What does this fold into?
Amino acid sequence: MNLVTNNHFVSLSPSLHAGSIADEGELSTVCYRPEGLDRLVQQTKFSKKELQVLYRGFKNECPSGVVNEETFKNIYSQFFPQGDSSMYAHFLFEAFDTHNNGSVSFEDFVISLSIILRGSITDKLNWAFNLYDLNKDGCITREEMTDIMHSIYDMMGKYTYPSMKDSAPMDHVDSFFQKMDKNNDGVVTIEEFLETCQKDENIMQSMHMFDNVI
Amino acid sequence: MAAGVAAWLPFARAAAIGWMPVASTPMPIPPQDKRKAQDGLIILNVSGTKFQTWRNTLERYPDTLLGSTERDFFFHEETNEYFFDRDPDIFRHILNFYRTGKLHYPRQECISAYDEELAFFGIIPEIIGDCCYEEYKDRRRENAERLQDDEEMDMNNDVTPVNLTFREYLWRAFENPHTSTLALVFYYVTGFFIAISVMANVVETVPCGTLPNRSKEISCGDRYALAFFCLDTACVMIFTVEYLLRLIAAPSRYKFMKSVMSVIDVVAIMPYYIGLVMTDNDQVSGAFVTLRVFRVFRIFKFSRHSAGLRILGYTLKSCASELGFLLFSLTMAIIIFATVMFYAEKGSTASKFTSIPAAFWYTIVTMTTLGYGDMVPKTIVGKVFGSICSLSGVLVIALPVPVIVSNFSRIYHQSQRAEKRRAQRKTRLARIRAAKIRGTNAYMRYKQNGLLIDSLEEASKEAGQALVGKAASPPFESQHHHLLHCLEKTTNHEFVDEQTFQANCMEISVMNKSGSRASSLSSSPHGLSSCCSRRHRKKSSFSLPSTNNQELSTIQIRERPVVNSRSSLNAKLDETVPLKCDEPYITPSMVSLSAPVVTSSDGDSSTTTTAYSQSNIVRVSAL
It folds into this structure.
């Protein structure tokens, strides 16, 4: 089945079983159960076994079946103990949360992963563009890129070599715009982005690096 | 550290796609999954109880028994399972550690049995989760104290070791009277003399009949003055000798002199000596009489003989604030009622309530329900308030007392626990820091290994041997490190640990002062510092500025020693590298230099960036 096309703003509207247990005014615990395994196999490019492994890990960390931003940030920060990964995790969360409802269910999670890991180059680049485009208006401004860059550099933490200068992210943003912004209008559109990336060997190569992650 | 969320590593790696378009340098090669491990179930039979888990779960912690090849020793072929002849109840917790990443301590288990199991399965107890750590440490300390008490008792029952110096022997005799007969004798003798002395002080004030030619009764102390004086002298002599002996024998004389018991000793014998020195003068005899009061402090010398007294003193000291509050509330009540009574009785004639302070006495006597009757109110208003006073006295006194009593035990235990927690906090913070440093060091090692293995691969290919790498780190670890490496490449900065960072800062300031210019191989001193600074922290990073310029101008290319033996290939990195990393030589395998870019010593990051992007410098660990 065709995977999600370039325009992954199309929401697949998965049907979720929401079971809530409300007991005499206590907090209701909501459990989301994902759709059947078979439907997910159809919707993504993962095999059954891979989905099983993914779900087990997902459920282990989030027994309720959805990830909220706090848990997301917490999990991500365990991989980057030296620095502060909360901003980047926030941007990632925004990118994964395709329905903008403040939580990432297993479907959202797996669909995004499928694009990143098993999608075509264009899909991947689109996803990356969507990550950078914070307000989802179709172009990356300098401010957005600066925010992204700061969040990436924050993950490095304080103890780096050479010492982290305050201007390091800005300089990086400048070089990025220099490379990507062909018509020098101060924003990078999706076409410019795709075009520049497809011409860059390094980027092309690195896009394939995590293909065998699962 | 992130092993608990190992299942999310694929997600973290996938999320790294966000760095790719902004990175200007090529990414490092991902580690190969040499074995695409089939994630199968493993059966663990522990004394008949079967546990099952995924293979990957166990392999998250490769330095434990279950996660390493050590478990193969327990493989039982007939039943195709791993059999352990251990306690299944405790094993449950150990297996949960693999599953959740947190080790819990079951409260109902014996601490030594639990420790044994942990040691057997190769798990260090320090990783016990926060929820159970305090309990674990408490139980452990109790156990250790119990063992220590047992040892001490045994030790005290043993024959005294011969090689104690006389001083140590003496101190030991004083502190533990039951170690030798002489010490016991001394203990009882001093106790006897304390009792004698106290009784003498008491008896010498008793009236003893009249002298034949006087009508007034005189006290026994005056009548048999000489006898009492001799007795007092004897006691003081014994006490002085005891004090001097203790002072001589004390391991730390200054500490001994500061201790409470020695102060009591001094106070007990001082009045006698002062009395000897002072002449029998009327002016000072008043002061002298006051001094004799201090003789009663001799009774506190009994606290060496009684543990109960010591405990009482300690608890009083620790409940001082509660006692203070009781005193304060009592004082408030007293003042209130005294004022009321004074003004109520002001009108009556020949009232004993002459002032408010005079009314204090009445209030105290009434509130404590003593009721001496020397002061009584006469007016009706006075009697009304007097009865209110006595009723409230019952409450005011009776209520705080149980609170005080329970506060005693509560505060006592609380202070114990607070001290424990404070002591534990330092070690726990140190633990966390050590784990962080371990993580960073593990990451540094990974980077060394990555390059080392590459170069070893080349070497072994040349030598035509199969590559036997170092004990393979688990795929999770190497993937995590690869992820961190990608981040470094994206931002063109490297992770270093705290000490190196500070050393580098100092180095930069030194280089700034000397105004030397680093040449284009700005990356190589970095390679030096990152590789060798771990081994010679202070040495190399300070010698760098001086050797920098000479080193860089002549790149010393050493023959990489051909590694012939499999054993050295097998050897862990830690063992091989230090042998060769004596001096910071560079052994570049592929170094391509860009056009000399003169960078200022504090490394303007943008030019460094361009230097990085232009040159493909492979940093090789110095071998």
About this structure: The radius of gyration of chain A is 19 Å. Chain A touches chain B through 61 residues (CB under 8 Å).
